[in-house]
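Sanity check

After download, print the first record. It should look like this:
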Amino acid sequence: MTESDPRGGVEVTANAAVPEQAGSAAGSPDRRRWWRVLCRDVGHIRRYLTVLVNRDRVVLVGPPGRTVVLSTDGVGELSSALRRAAEQARK
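Expected structure tokens:
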């Protein structure tokens, strides 16, 4: 996907989204193209789930070969990122 710089997503944690990392082709926050949700693997190593918008599709990318463990806050953040991505995919 060429619309977003890999360094330009939003890192979502249980406490806050980091808006200075928001990325989109046009640079406007309402057209964000991807989000990163903080999670842990079963070994408690910090990982990320990435939610991408690719045209009219939403893509969920997990860490390769890893099982993801989300806190209850992380589940809420993932749900929110998926909802926002679905809205962008509909536009």
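If your output differs, re-run the checksum step. Summary of this record's structure: Residues 39 and 88 are 23 Å apart (CA to CA).
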